[in-house]
Amino acid sequence: MRRTSARAAPSLLALMALAGCQEEAPAGEAVSVPSGRKLSLIEVITDVRGPAGATVRFRFLAPGLVPAEAETAAEDMQALCDGFAIKRIDGMVPAPQQIVISFASEVVPFGQAAPDVVQFFESYRLENGRCVWEIF
């Protein structure tokens, strides 16, 4: 199994500052993934720089998400990056160097710690029009 150690516990964005967002798709939009999990878009954030430079974050609500679903969530996030996010970044200025996909079992304001909420995050670099997973 790839990424097993990175899935031991949910990640939190406790150190990130609260920021505004620029939506590229309507909040609440239902999104399909290979696992069949019901997801909806919370927001798209484009104005918080990441370690690789310009970063776009696609945040999704995943009701009922539990820590044991980390590997399935990782597969769904890869599919979302390749089939949903990458289609929505064309024309963004500055051009994103990184895409972050996140799932949360409840809506949590960006950057706010929520120890009781299951959250998973994956980071991808863009290479030849595809999302390539990177260790966060």
UniProtKB/TrEMBL annotation:
Keywords: Signal. Residues 1-19 form the signal peptide. Pfam families: DUF6497. InterPro entries: DUF6497. It comes from Rhodobacter calidifons. This is Acetolactate synthase.
